[in-house]
Amino acid sequence: MIELTEINRAEALRYMGGSKVEMNEIMEALLNSCEKDIIKAASPKYLYKKIPLENSGLLIGNTIYEHLKDCREAVLMCATIGAGVDKLIRSASVTDMAKAVVIDAFASAAVEQVCEKTEELIKQEIPDKYFTWRFSPGYSDYPIELQEKFLSILDAPRKIGLCANESSLLTPTKSVTAIIGVSDKPIEKKRRGCAGCNLRESCQYRKSGERCEF
Amino acid sequence: MNFNELMKNEFILLDGATGTMLQKSGLKLGEIPETLNITRPETVMNIHRQYIESGTQILTTNTFGANSYKMKNSGYTVQQLIGAAVKNARSAAGDKALVALEIGPIGQLLEPAGSLSFDEAYEYFKEEILAGEDTDIIFFETFTDLLELKAGVLAAKENSDKPVVASMTFEKNGRTFAGVSVASAAITLEGLGVSALGVNCSLGPDELAPIVKEFTEWTSLPIFVKPNAGLPDPNSNTYNVTAEDFAESMDKITDYGTVKLVGGCCGTTPDYIKALKKVIDNKTYKKADVKKDTAVCSATTAVEINQPRIIGERINPTGKKLFKEALINNDIDYILSQAISQVKAGADILDVNVGLPEIDEKDMMVRVIKALQSVVDVPLQIDSTKPDVLEAALRVYNGKPIINSVNGEEKSLTNVLPLVKKYGASVIGLTLDEDGIPKTAEGRFNIAKRIVERANALGIPSKDVYIDCLTLTVSAEQSACKETLKALHRVKTELGCKTCLGVSNISFGLPNRELINHIFLTMALEEGLDLPIINPNDELMTGAVRAYKVLADIDKNSKEFIESYNEVKTEKPKIVSSHISLTDAIINGLKSEAASLTEKALENKDAMEIVNSELIPALDKVGVDFESNKIFLPQLIQSANVAQACFEVIKKHLSKNNNTPVSKGKIILATVKGDIHDIGKNIVKVLLDNYGYTVVDLGRDVAPEIIIKTAIDQNIKLIGLSALMTTTLKSMEDTITLARKTPELINSDGSSKVIFFVGGAVLTEDYAKKIGADYYCKDAKESVDTAKLVFSSQ
Asked: Which of A111, B331, B402, B481 has its CA at a distance of 20 to 30 angstroms from the CA of residue B630?
């Protein structure tokens, strides 16, 4: 059980268009009330499962192959903050779009937090091993169509109500799936950077002179 | 033996888990359990046989996920898989058990959470039901979305005559993943005419107990319970409750009454079923008392009509110019904002009427119902005079609605009541018939009685008929009020029905209408009015209901009353000085100040001058600040909203002076087919709105054909498309390609009549060019710049 008590505000602000902007009173009040709303509406859930990589059908594309080359096993995980958040965003979109944008950003930050906590749990559960960072379908040349396979291996539709639609979009929308490589020996820490990222040209962060944590 | 005969037993023993047993028999990672029906029928039959030997009386087929969506990569058709599964189950069951066709969720979320439509869901289920013809019962299990389950139950009812049994899966907090409450599940499923309903999976018997208990309070139908063998260990996938403990807990659960069918879900094995058999073998079934009164519901919220409940009347075009315009312009958001404000003001239920000669009422009703249910939790009252509109809405409605209305006319009784029965709704009965509205209370009572009798004859209980004794205008006939109230009283006491009443008609033609309405409402409440249909935004009316509930000892400890009025009014810090300019008010996001400054400015300035010299420059300043990282996106939007308030003031002023409203041009916006992330599109909409453009918002997941048709029908030149994911960029391309190929959108010189601007997270300028878009907009601000450019060059 993962509970959200507060949401990473710096992260949320980054989604809202930059952390360089100076805060003011009106913005502060809006952020506070939206954070409360989202904590109330969120229902964080996660699943993970360790699997052997051989014959898993999950190594598609160069980037993932490179990413997991030192690993014979991996952990698949997924996380969501639930359909209630989508409803909250829809409702705010009708009455107050500014609020909707803030809630949307907080929701993205919240699901990221749930992922981080899940990752901590995984690492506790599997001691004395080394891990790669989380890699998700849709990153670089890793096909987004694998969402369904991830969800099916994790039994996510039945266990936590997390599905994908025909365009491989996760529903509820504030959700993540990822694969983490597991190895017996230390993994060379590769720099996650813009240079190796296929989304480099379209990245919203790069456009505004920032970077994501990838 | 058939299901009805079997149900004469005290208890009925179901089976345990199939998946758990298949895993024990060596199901491989990624192997599809349903294919084993064909590849290893012996394994499946062996599991079935073990359950039969344990005493199972209804065997479920190994077809949980056997729908064509989940099975698309299995190498088999639904017909092959279900056909084989039924054969296996039949051969194992022999004459010792009935065979139930097991149907689980499709594996994709329905709208609005996902993008699967109700009709698509229905077709998936229909295919399964037809493939499983040679079974005795249809068993829906493990559902979390009530609307998906409703699609399944309707598909079963309309394509077979087998008994239908349905269950949902709840979490510890008493809700499913989709937020469905126990009450909503019980009320809705009972209404749809299932033979038994209940819960399965996710929790062990002890955790499920309070949920089962709650079911018994809401339904008199037989309840079935199939818990997991406790909670799973995430690593070993073993469960923590033994067969003996499981049976002991189930013994307690069957003591609640009404629970009649018992079995197990994940982690349970034939041993659990054997243990369960020992418990129920010498036990007598009893029914618990249904504690709850009649109720209506959405998927998340049930409203029990055990006290006065407010029905909000504002979603109705009658006499409302703006509402009519919204309907004609497909402005669903306007309707949604009307709904949200009524709920905030205290409405328990919302009436929905979208009848207007200029529009396709059926199509609009379905869209509005879906949209309303995606943002508000209150149950809805479907209001139309046309049976086909009612039925279309009843199908897609998630929960148990009220139908408004039936009356004593033969045509109405014959057309409307069967719909109420089939879809399990409640209905408003108007006390009028072919001869009009009877003058006397006696006359109206008699019609009410006739309506209730006809409803009962179809199996609709009296408690689900809400009688409206009709409010007449007191200025036209002064004794009318007393007759209405007298009839209401008799209906309530003699027929045992709930009552409703539209209130405001009473004061027509009199001064100080509010006062008359308010006193009449109070009098009616005292006579037993349950469902006042009012404008909840009218504080006096809503207040009267709240005060009545205190004085009539309904609102215990005045809790609801205090909560409604004790809210600390937190005023926002106001930076206002008397010298603030309109521009500053917009930049600082001060809505009411900006609106009043606009009104003041209109006294001595031309409307267009205010727009061009103050509103637009202020918005531009905010836009530049946003681009240079001085303000956040929400602040940009706040300013845009303030500007909109100013535009509203100007629009009102212009329409008073019979000038044409300010519109700088019409633009279509849509999030493309397959994509359900529409926040980006909505931001663009707000900005364009507030720069004075008229936006036709087609929503999300919009097919290319709809976009093209709208462009042709409404003669719109500029189209904005949004897509968030790489997978949906293709739909963007398809839309543009279709437009370029559509003769109606091509000029005689071969050039295109429509201009596309596109945006979205993964989109690049290069890609936008490649797919044939005219403009690439990196953010909402650039969309406005593009609109300016396009319309100024024309």
From this structure: A111
In the three-class reduction of DSSP (H, G, I as helix; E, B as strand; rest coil), residue A131 is classed as strand
| B 59-98: CB under 8 A from A | none
Residue count (chain B): 794
When the candidates are 3.20.20.330, 2.60.120.260, 3.40.50.1820, 3.90.228.20, the CATH number that belongs to B3-281 is 3.20.20.330
B738-745's contacts with Cβ under 8 Å and 24+ in sequence apart are: B738/B704, B738/B705, B738/B708, B739/B704, B739/B707, B739/B708, B739/B711, B740/B772, B742/B708, B742/B712, B744/B712, B745/B708, B745/B711, B745/B712
- Interchain proximity B761–A18, CB inside 8 Å: no
For A202, which of B374, B631, B762 is closest by C-beta distance?
A: B762
For residue range B221-261, list pLDDT tens digits in order.
999 999 999 988 766 778 999 999 999 999 999 999 999 99
User: Chain A partners of B732 at a C-beta cutoff of 8 Å?
Assistant: none
The set of residues, in sequence order, having a beta carbon less than 8 Å from that of A143 and lying 6+ positions away, is: A60, A61, A137
Find tokens 């300010």 and name the residue: B662
Query: B411: which 2 tokens?
Result: 């045509």
- Asked if B767 contacts B786 with a C-beta cutoff of 8 angstroms, the reply is no
What distance in Å separates the CA atoms of residue B310 and residue B500, rounded to the nearest whole number?
10
- Among the partner-chain residues B142, B235, B675, the one whose CB lies closest to the CB of A158 is B142
Q: Where are the domains of chain A?
A: 9-207
Residue numbers in B near A16 (CB within 8 A): 632-634
* Nearest residue to B156 (alpha-carbon basis) of B138, B172, B176: B138
Name the closest residue on chain B to residue A151, using Cα atoms: B107
What is the ipTM, given to two decimal places? 0.87
Residue B660: predicted pLDDT: 60
Q: Is B113 on the interface with A (CB under 8 A)?
A: yes
Best mutation target among A97, A122, A152 (most B Cβ atoms within 10 Å) is A97
CATH of segment(s) A9-207: 3.40.109.40
Burial class (CB in 10 A: 0-12, 13-18, 19+), A51: middle
The pTM is what? 0.90
Q: What are phi and psi of A140, to 5 degrees?
A: 50, -130
Q: What's the pLDDT band for B571 if we cut at 50, 70, 90?
A: very low
- CATH dotted code for B586-656: 1.10.1240.10
Between strands A130-131 and A175-183, the pairing is: antiparallel
Q: Which residues of A touch B731 (CB under 8 A)?
A: 167
CATH no. of B295-565: 3.20.20.20
**Cβ–Cβ under 8 Å, residues B423 and B394:** yes
Question: How far is A96 from chain B, CA to nearest CA, in Å?
Answer: 8
Helix (H, G, I), strand (E, B), or coil: what is residue B113?
coil
How many other C-beta atoms are found inside a 10 Å radius of the C-beta of residue B308?
A: 23
Q: B295-565: same fold as B3-281?
A: yes
Residue of B242, B282, B284 whose CA lies nearest to B259: B284
| Residue numbers in B near A84 (CB within 8 A) | 179
Q: Which amino acid is at A157?
A: P
Contact B632 A17 (CB under 8 A): yes
- Topology of domain B666-792, per CATH? Rossmann fold (3.40.50)
Chain A residue with Cα closest to B142: A158
The whole-angstrom separation of Cα B372 and Cα B187 is: 20
Could you give the CA distance from residue B254 to residue B51 in angstroms, rounded to a whole number? Answer: 21
What ranges do the domains of chain B cover? 3-281, 295-565, 586-656, 666-792
Write out pLDDT tens, residues B669-698.
999 998 888 888 888 988 888 888 999 999
Cβ of residue B105 closer than 8 Å to a chain A Cβ: yes
Give the CB-side neighbour count of residue B438, counting CA atoms within 13 A. 22
Closest partner CB to B682 (pick from A91, A100, A102): A100
